[in-house]
């Protein structure tokens, strides 16, 4: 990488702060819409971290797939299901919070301990292949990773068909039991929930 | 600091923190969409890990970057199917509260 080391440090600090604070905002903010937009910011900052690691192709793929597809999909899903509802109170919510937070903090301290105490046999990132990495990824994808590449394409096809089948609403022109024409616009709002809540 | 480059440990710590935040959100969210977002955060943490190791340890055969590409592919498929499941669940239950999806609870 040709950027000066000080600039790299500044970029890394800013990007990691954005990643961590943005992720905290995603899980802690009250409004789900703010969370979705913050998630887009986190994805962009992760792409910036990839650029710092000399991986321009993966950074571009991250921006295209995560920010351009996944985040937009999440925002559309929020628009479809975002209804103001009063959540049922849970009686032991505080103990749950305490237990899950302590588990997460324990895991974090364990991971950080492993990160810092292990001796990594590093080769210098200065000799990295840089811009040639895109060519190298293409060579990998069409030689030794050819089978996973093809399986991934089949997986995407299956996911596409599955998503269409799951999210499609079966529109019928007339009601089966009565024979009357169905009011198409209100088909969701008028129908009773199929699974009633047991609690 | 007098270093030649950013240490590998810095990237690992960032990804550990991101992963733990994702787990916390996964355990504590009431909204099902936020659960999916937490899963995306965890996948991103794993991707940062893979990319850091690929750049610092294996910088000639960048196999970590290829793995990251595959993880991004699987994450996109997962998000599409997950949100479709969420929509059909919302159609049946008219809520996205995780606490009301308890049909399989014994």
From TrEMBL, chain B:
One Pfam assignment: Oxidored_q2
Annotated GO CC locations: NADH dehydrogenase complex; plasma membrane-derived thylakoid membrane
GO molecular function terms listed in the Swiss-Prot or TrEMBL record: oxidoreductase activity, acting on NAD(P)H, quinone or similar compound as acceptor; quinone binding
Catalytic activity: a plastoquinone + NADPH + (n+1) H(+)(in) = a plastoquinol + NADP(+) + n H(+)(out); a plastoquinone + NADH + (n+1) H(+)(in) = a plastoquinol + NAD(+) + n H(+)(out)
Alphabetized InterPro entries for the sequence: NADH_UbQ_OxRdtase_chain4L/K (IPR001133), NUOK/Mnh_C1-like (IPR039428)
Localization (cell): Cellular thylakoid membrane; Membrane
GO biological process: ATP synthesis coupled electron transport; photosynthesis, light reaction
Chief location bin: membrane
Transmembrane region(s): 6-27, 39-57, 69-90
Assigned keywords, A-Z: Membrane, NAD, NADP, Oxidoreductase, Plastoquinone, Quinone, Thylakoid, Translocase, Transmembrane, Transmembrane helix, Transport
Superkingdom of the organism of origin: Bacteria
This enzyme's EC code(s): 7.1.1.-
Protein's membrane topology: Multi-pass membrane protein
Subunit structure: NDH-1 can be composed of about 15 different subunits; different subcomplexes with different compositions have been identified which probably have different functions.
NCBIfam families for this protein: PRK05715.1-2 (NF004320), PRK05715.1-3 (NF004321), PRK05715.1-4 (NF004322), PRK05715.1-5 (NF004323)
Family: Belongs to the complex I subunit 4L family.
Protein role: NDH-1 shuttles electrons from an unknown electron donor, via FMN and iron-sulfur (Fe-S) centers, to quinones in the respiratory and/or the photosynthetic chain. The immediate electron acceptor for the enzyme in this species is believed to be plastoquinone. Couples the redox reaction to proton translocation, and thus conserves the redox energy in a proton gradient. Cyanobacterial NDH-1 also plays a role in inorganic carbon-concentration.
HAMAP family assigned: NDH1_NuoK (MF_01456)
Protein name: NAD(P)H-quinone oxidoreductase subunit 4L
Organism: Prochlorococcus marinus str. XMU1401
Gene name for this UniProt entry: nuoK
């Amino acid at each position: 990488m040709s950027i000066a080391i000080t600039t790299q440090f500044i970029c890394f600090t800013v990007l990691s702060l954005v990643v961590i604070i943005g992720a905290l905002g995603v899980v802690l903010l009250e409004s789900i819409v703010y969370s979705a937009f913050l998630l887009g910011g986190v994805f962009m900052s992760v792409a910036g971290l990839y650029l710092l690691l000399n991986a321009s192709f993966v950074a571009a793929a991250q921006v295209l797939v995560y920010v351009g597809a996944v985040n937009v999909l999440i925002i559309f899903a929020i628009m479809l299901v975002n209804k103001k509802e009063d959540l049922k109170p849970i009686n032991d919510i505080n103990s749950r919070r305490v237990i899950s937070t302590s588990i997460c903090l324990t895991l974090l301290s364990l991971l950080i301990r492993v990160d810092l105490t292990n001796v990594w046999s590093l080769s210098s990132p200065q000799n990295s292949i840089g811009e040639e990495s895109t060519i190298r990824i293409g060579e990998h994808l069409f030689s030794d990773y050819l089978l996973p590449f093809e399986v991934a394409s089949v997986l995407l096809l299956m996911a596409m068909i599955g998503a269409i089948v799951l999210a499609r609403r079966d529109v019928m022109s007339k009601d089966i039991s009565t024979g009357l024409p169905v009011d198409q616009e209100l088909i969701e709002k008028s129908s009773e929930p199929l699974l009633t809540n047991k609690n | 600091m007098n270093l030649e480059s950013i240490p590998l440990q810095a990237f690992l710590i960032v990804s550990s923190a991101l992963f733990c935040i994702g787990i916390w959100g996964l355990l504590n969210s009431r909204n099902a969409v936020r659960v999916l977002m937490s899963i995306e955060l965890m996948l991103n943490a794993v991707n940062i890990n893979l990319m850091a190791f690929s750049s610092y340890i294996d910088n000639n055969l960048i196999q970590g970057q290829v793995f990251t590409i595959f993880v991004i592919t699987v994450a996109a498929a997962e998000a599409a199917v997950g949100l479709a499941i969420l929509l059909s669940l919302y159609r049946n239950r008219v809520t996205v509260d995780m606490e009301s999806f308890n049909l399989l609870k014994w």
